[in-house]
Amino acid sequence: MEAVIRVRGLSKRFGDFTAVDQVDMSIPPHGVYGFLGPNGSGKTTAIRMMCGLLAPTAGEIEVLGMRIPEQTELIRRQVGYMTQKFSMYADLTILQNMEFMARIMGVRRAEQRGRIRELLQRFRLEPFSRRLAGALSGGQKRRLALAAAVIHQPRLLLLDEPTSEVDPNTRREFWDELFLMCESGTTVLVTTHLMDEAERCHHLAIINEGRKVADGSPEALKGQLGAGVFAIDGPQITAIRNHLEGVSQVLATTRIGLSLRVMLMPGVVDGLDWLREHLAGFTAGIEPAGATIEDVFVMATRENGAKGAGGAGR
Ligand SMILES: Nc1ncnc2c1ncn2[C@@H]1O[C@H](COP(=O)(O)OP(=O)(O)O)[C@@H](O)[C@H]1O
Ligand SMILES: [Mg+2]
User: Fold this and answer.
1) Helix, strand, coil in percent for the chain, rounding step 5
2) Which of 87, 142, 217, 304 is most buried as measured by Cβ atoms within 10 A of its Cβ?
3) Does a structural domain hold residue 260?
4) Residue 248 is part of a domain; what is its CATH number?
5) Does residue 31 sit within a domain?
């Protein structure tokens, strides 16, 4: 399958700070490809380079078979980009914003009205079409931004943290829309720092401090975790957490509701037995737990940190 985006050795430096560090990536068509990383990991910088809005310091980018940034103009009308920060005109109405976007994205005049109407209906914006964009709720703003990003029916849609600031119901609706777009042939690249969004993607790249530290389908990433994860219940979990603190076999612990989630280091064999023995003095129920993307993320970002600390001094 021909990749929709292919990136090799992509790097961006701002002064002596490296925001994106030698990223290789290949994004297959017709799916949702997630770019998962904490704040400041270089997601926005990477996506802006893929749109041709920011010149890379090094590396190659190919989007829809064209070289970026050299051939950006040729693909501009086939790519939709939704910025992380709301970038519609606050002092124009929804309708005026849509009309403006239709014009600059080259939607044919005769088709503009119909297309705008269809999108306003689909994104439930029609009742507010004469309201100023600046006066919309967070969810409405996101819907407007998505409607505007797809006005020209792009083959590729780049979404930068599209739902970080909206409630879970709005987020679900938004994702339903994304899947519909995929089914009709659009490829979607979405950046996120939210684990529940990452779980929905067909394919994920995990990025930390500008570097890609893992990639694969969520299922494959969870399957390859290579570390035991356990849930511990009982009246003493605070004491247990303190007891596990700093123990070399323990990679991470986190409280989830009434239980304690413990990830052991890769290579600890018979983790359940080890934990039972180590916690023999406590009243605790200890059960193996299924890996989550959050576990994968914790593991991947830790490995990156360890390499950085011991490595070639980049
Ligand atoms: N124009 C810039 N000049 C200097 N540093 C920048 C610039 N843009 C981004 N950065 C830095 O690059 C890093 C990555 O930023 P960004 O790509 O916005 O991360 P993310 O989108 O993952 O939160 C951050 O440390 C940020 O401060
Ligand atoms: Mg960002």
Assistant:
1) 40, 25, 35
2) 142
3) yes
4) 3.30.70.100
5) no
Cα 41 to ligand 2 centroid, rounded to whole Å: 8
Could you list the beta-strand ranges (E) of 64-129.
66-68, 79-82
E strand residue ranges, the chain: 5-14, 17-27, 32-36, 58-63, 66-68, 79-82, 156-160, 187-192, 203-208, 211-216, 229-233, 250-256, 259-264, 285-288
CB of 18 within 6 A of ligand 1: the answer is no
DSSP string, 208-254: ETTEEEEEE-HHHHHHT--S-EEEEESTTHHHHHHHHTT-TTEEEEE
Asked whether residue 243 is domain-assigned, the answer is: yes
**CA nearest neighbour of 59 among 251, 170, 212, 201:** 212
Domain of residue 237, residue span: 226-290
Residue 190 CB contacts under 8 Å (≥ 6 apart), including other chains: 32, 33, 34, 35, 159, 162, 178, 197, 201
Nearest CA to ligand 1 atom 8: 45
Q: How confident is the model at residue 1 (pLDDT cuts 50, 70, 90)?
A: low
Closest CA to 230 of 219, 217, 241: 241
* Collapsed DSSP state (helix, strand, coil) of residue 9: strand
92: in domain:
no
Work out which ligand 1 atom sits closest to the CA atom of 193.
22
| Structural tokens at position 81 | 């980009």
192 lines ligand 1 (CB under 6 A): no
pLDDT tens digits for range 113-162: 999 999 999 999 999 999 999 999 988 999 999 999 999 999 999 999 99
Q: How many distinct structural domains can be found in the chain?
A: 1
Report the interhelical angle of 94-104 vs 109-122 (nearest 10°).
130
